[in-house]
Amino acid sequence: MNSIPARVSGVGGGVDVSGLSCTVWAFASPSVRGVVSAQQPHLRNRKKNVNVPAPAGIATLVAYVATIPAANLAVTHFGAIPVGFDYAAPAGVYMVGLALVLRDLARESAGRGAVLAAIAVGTVLSYFLADPALAAASAAAFAVAETMDFAVYEPLRKRGLVIAMLASNAVGLLVDSLLFLKLAFGSFEYLPGQILGKSWMTLAALAVLALRRRRKHVTV
Fold first, then answer.
1. CA atoms within 13 A on the CB side of 60
2. Coil, strand or helix: which one is 83?
3. Which end of the chain is more exposed for a tag (fewer CB within 10 A), N or C?
4. Which run of H or E residues covers position 74?
5. 3 state SS of 86
6. CA gap 90, 130 in Å, rounded
7. Cβ neighbours of residue 7 under 8 Å, at least 6 residues apart?
8. Please, are residues 199 and 171 in contact by the beta-carbon 8 Å criterion?
9. What is the full per-residue pLDDT of the chain (220 aa) written as tens digits?
10. Side-chain half-sphere of 121: how many Cα atoms within 13 Å?
11. Around Cβ 209, how many Cβ atoms within 10 Å?
C-alpha cells in the first residue's frame, strides 16, 4: 500500500512503520481496499492526461516563435523590399504575415493555452530582438495584433479553418500594420505594402492547405 510511508521522520530520527502499514492493510475491510485500489489507476491516469502538444504542435509553435527573430533580421539586413504593384514594405513583412498563419495553425495543433503562452514569449522576443528604436513599437504591434487575431479566430473555428483564418488574419495584419507604422515611424507611407505583403502569406498558406486537403481526398 503506497498511501502510508515506510518511515516517519521526527526530531529523534526515523521510525520504521512498514510493518504497521502492512497490518493496517491486512485488517482493512474489503470495501476500503476496493476504494483504494480503484483510486490508484485513476491517479496514474491523471498523470497520463496532462495536455502536452503533439510533435506537430510543438513544431508549429517553434516555427511561430522563430518568425520573430527572422523578421527582425530581415529588416536589419534588407530594409524595405518590393511586395508587388509598385509597393514596398519593411523586409520583415513576410515573416509577420507568416506568423499570423502559424498562430492559427498552432491553435489547432497545440491548443489555446500553448498559443497564448507563445504570444507572450513572442512579445518579449519582439522587444529584445528589435532595434532599440523600434523595440516598443515591435512588441506592442505583435502583442495587440496576435491577440486580436486570436480573438477573431476563436469564435469562427466552428465555421471552418479557411473562414476563420481569412477573417482573423485580415484583422491581425491590419492592426499590426497600423500600430507598428504609427509607433515606429509616425507615418503610414508603407501601409499599402504592409497589408499587401502580409496578405500574400495568408493566401499562400490557404493555397497550400487547400492542396493538401485535395490530395488527402484523392488518396482516400
1. 19
2. strand
3. C
4. helix 55-78
5. coil
6. 13
7. 14, 15, 16, 17, 18
8. no
9. 444 444 434 434 444 434 434 444 445 455 544 544 444 554 444 444 445 668 888 999 999 999 999 998 888 888 889 999 999 998 889 999 999 999 999 998 999 999 999 999 999 999 998 888 888 999 999 999 999 999 999 999 989 888 999 999 999 999 999 999 999 889 999 999 999 999 999 899 888 888 877 776 666 5
10. 16
11. 15
Beta bridge partners of 88: 82
Q: What is the pLDDT of residue 210?
A: 81
- Residue 211, burial from CB neighbour count under 10 angstroms (0-12, 13-18, 19+): exposed
Cα–Cα distances in angstroms (integers) from residue 13 to residues 16, 85, 160, in the given order: 10, 81, 64
Go through 47-77 and write b for each residue having 16 or more CB atoms within 10 A of its CB, e for each that does not: eeeeeebeeebeebbebbbbbbebbbebbee
Calculate the alpha carbon distances from 161 to 3, 51, 156 in Å: 48, 22, 8
Rounded to whole angstroms, the Cα distance separating 220 from 218 reads 6
**What's the CA gap between 108 and 1, in Å, rounded?**
42
